[in-house]
Amino acid sequence: MMADKSKALPEEKLNLHPRNLHRSRYDLPGLIKALPRLRDFVAANDFEELSIDFTDPEAVKMLNKALLKHHYGVNEWDIPEGFLCPPIPGRADYIHYLADVLAEGNNGKVPTGKTIKVLDVGVGANCIYPLIGHKVYGWNFVGSEADYIAAASAQKIVDANGLSGNIEIRAQSFYSGIFKGVIKSGEVFDITMCNPPFHSSSKEVKEKSTRKWKNLGQEDKGADLNFGGRNNELWYDGGEPRFLNTMITESKQFARSCKWFSSLISKKTTLDGCYKSLDYHKAADIKTITMSQGQKTSRILVWRF
Fold first, then answer.
1. At what angle are helices 88-104 and 128-137 packed, to 10 degrees?
2. Strand segments (E) across the chain
3. d(CA 278, CA 6)
4. Tens digit of pLDDT for each residue in 163-203?
């Protein structure tokens, strides 16, 4: 009888997608070998296990650099101070679940290669989704970005890793648009993705950050824990519900340009309004995928017309 290898994995990792490379504990020795600078941030924790301080922004950024280099062949990666530093395992999960959606229309087989074109709405300074999606599945990406500093950072990452033929960064010049000003005439995407700002104001961001630090028994350090984030990354006037309603309304206008649309949904309460909006705009197919990492649960809303 074969041993149940899943029992060797920490429980909080088992809810990651089966194809996610990060279901087991971080191989810190292997990551240090890939990026020796990580060694300065690794030490034994209270359980005598090697770890990093996940409340230290520099430690988390160095871990990200090591993960991207070790698992995805991204040799050059950095973000400007104050921008969102995303957790790699959760970001990879979104990519894998989108691959499953695309597989449904491909006889159950995940389509790979540059013929698959994905639009990442709000690619951010970190450019994480295109980096992972291209490395794992060979897809081509367009990443839109309204913040010129973030767009420049993403472009720098693309250029430094020789990926300009596979990842294109486009500035979002239409102030209130999501797809407007980004999708070109005659262009067709297999699927779109987005990690939207889910707070409604900078005050809400600050209050949540303060609660996090308090729960850790530490003084508020004036940042949203290790992940940082500028205003346009973290909040939108009207919050997640208004952003998603705008996206759904605009997606109807681009129904012929995108085979599928998708977005992360952080708050479960946002879903009812999204379903009503999709029903109003006569979406032909709607999927809701639950995605979790540790104690955090989010959802991927996927639709088409």
1. 50
2. 43-44, 50-51, 117-121, 140-145, 167-171, 191-194, 261-265, 285-293, 296-304
3. 38
4. 999 999 999 888 778 999 999 999 999 999 999 985 344 55
Model pLDDT, residue 3 = 38
Instruction: Report the alpha-carbon distance of residue 148 to residue 171 in Å, rounded.
Output: 7
Sign of CA dihedral 270, 272, 275, 279: negative
Quick check: helix, strand or coil at residue 289? Answer: strand
Cα–Cα distance for residue pair 275/224, rounded to 1 Å: 30
Residue 89 β-bridge partners? none
Q: How far apart are CA 129 and CA 88, in angstroms?
A: 9
For residues 145 and 15, what is the distance between their CA atoms, to the nearest angstrom? Answer: 31
Give the integer Cα–Cα distance in Å for 22 and 226.
Answer: 19
Phi-psi region of 194 (alpha: psi -120 to 50; beta: other; left: phi over 0): beta
Q: Which of 217, 226, 189, 214 is nearest to 58 (CA)?
A: 226
In this structure, the chain runs to a length of 305
Closest CA to 254 of 233, 275, 279, 283: 283
Confidence (pTM): 0.85
Residue 39 three-state SS: helix
Per-residue model confidence (pLDDT) at position 167: 98
Q: Which domains does the chain carry?
A: 82-304 (3.40.50.150)
Could you tell me the CA-to-CA distances from 158 to 76, 121, 142 in Å, in that order? 9, 16, 11
Residues 6 or more apart in contact with residue 276 via CB below 8 angstroms: none
